[in-house]
Batch of 4 targets.
Target 1
Amino acid sequence: MKGELQTLSKGSYSLEDYLHKAKSLALSLRSAGKPMDDDDLIVCILRGLGSEFDPIVPALNARDMFPSLEAVISKLRDFEIRLQNAKTTSSSVAFYTNRNRSYTKP
């Protein structure tokens, strides 16, 4: 189980599914009498995130001490919302730009 947690990757999972899987594995380890401390769990979570999270992972890793597990998860959720908003905004701008081009007269 610990090996599975250490190699867990977000891949195509949603952030929520990925976090749920990581927490479930950590809970299973605790139930088996081999608890993992929160800092180790945070390291595993951050390591498995995709490249879309590259802007936030170094900021979290740069600290001498990690914030609490829940604070890290909250920051990851906030970052994912920003990513989704940026994608939506980009799509809307592209649609608007392309729509206006089709109506332009030469």
Target 2
Amino acid sequence: MSSLPVKQLAFILILLFSLVSTSVYFIEKQNFETRTRAEEPISSKEAESISKTKNYPVTYQNSKFTPEKITVKFGESVTWINKSTNNLWVASGPHPSHALYPEFDSKKIIEANQSYTFTFTKKGYWGYHNHINDDAEGVVITE
């Protein structure tokens, strides 16, 4: 019984690893693009007229958002309230570019006992984070 030389076996393993890694990358990229696809935005004025201006609170405390996941209707708002002693900066993903939904970004620090409100004028699945502590993450789903 003949066996493959070590160099050939190493080459085959590296090739196999590369193929699997590339496949996983493209599958995840497609999943991300599907989750983040959205309709064209409308103006804030139009959003206010569509919504009865429902506003959902999300608190930030102990380096986490509560609730971590929230579903709102198109044109509704979410208010993030900083109940921690640490600073907060709410921004869409991915960190640090915030390119997923660039308008969804407080663009400044929200100090303790302060808040930030954003009205969602795009339908989609919007991951967000604390720009100062990007381990703190959440999701807003706009229907």
Target 3
Amino acid sequence: MRGAETGSIQARACRVDAPVVMPRYPHRMASSRKDADLGLVAPGPVDGIRVGVGGWTYAPWRETFYPDGLVQRRELEYASRRLSAIEINGTYYSAQKPDTYARWRDETPDGFVFTAKAPMRIVQAKVLANTLGQVEAFVGGLATLGDKLGAILWQFERKLDRDDFATFVDGLPEAANGVRLRHAIEVRDADKVDATLVDLARRKNAALVYTDSPEWPSLADVTADFVYARLMQAQSKEPTGYTRAALKSWAERV
């Protein structure tokens, strides 16, 4: 799966088995693919490729992306019927309750997925290996999303201790409450981006994030059964973020 901050491409995503839904948070009756109220047909993945953005609550979008008259509480409903994935950035800053995940799950159509950015308190911890208990709690809540949970993004901006980092990655859980977990790792410590990192990710079946950025390391090595790209060169002067030529190049690549 591929994701991004301002625009994302999710490619060759592997399929997630049917979820084990926790009784406390049952699904609403499944909606049809055509949403009569919003007048939209959810796009879903195309040849396994998902395209999304980071977040959905932005004031400027109410003048450009969201239709006039759409109330703010329905913005996720609308965005999830125009895109096939959204990266949740709010999880980086604060914990969300399981019933919040359940509401998001039920507001989005079949075939849609969320990715979630791991909490700052974990990824910026001095000793990552000491946070694995917090990791269990975090992914336990995310599992409420069921089959709408895509990848979990672990973004590391600081210098890393190689042994501590390896212990952390090895300890990432493979499932939570019956829901399979997929991990995407973004390492911004250039000194640690090497063959050792590639081998570590490959052993864990974790994707190394392709950032498409001149500021951060960007790896094209395939280390998992999905790919995660965060396209970070969007330009405000371009209505589509990327130029037409750049978008065509990406379309050819994926």
Target 4
Amino acid sequence: MKAIFRSTPWIAAGLLALATTATAQTARPALDYASAAKIRETCLDWATKNGKKMTVAVMDSHGMLVAYAHMDGASYQAGEMARWKATAASRFGKATGDLAKLNPASNVPNVATIAGGVAIYTPSGIALGGVGVSGGRPDEDVACATGGVTAAGLKTDKPAP
């Protein structure tokens, strides 16, 4: 029994040495709640100033909802459209208006082809997610979404290499 306890520190030290020399997962930026909330709040301010009743959905790069707002008076369908646009922009890394130019088949899931969804990138070009806005004209939805992303210090397009 004493032999087991005497060797335990050596076993623990060996395991610790192995654990510290193993390669770790590469860290990469992720869309945090503070940035998503800034995008959402900026969009809501834009909508209020322009007399619009809008819905804003902000998703991370995996298509998970991070922040959402549905203004009083916005239609039910605006909520569905905003989530659809945000999903497409986050998964494809492109503005939904640009996806329409690719002429996708109508049965491809999660491909929004109506302007109002924009991708979210870090200034160095790492994809963080997407934002979808609905409730105004397509150009108003884009202006609202773009303004929110810019206010958060992020980009809507991947910078050219």
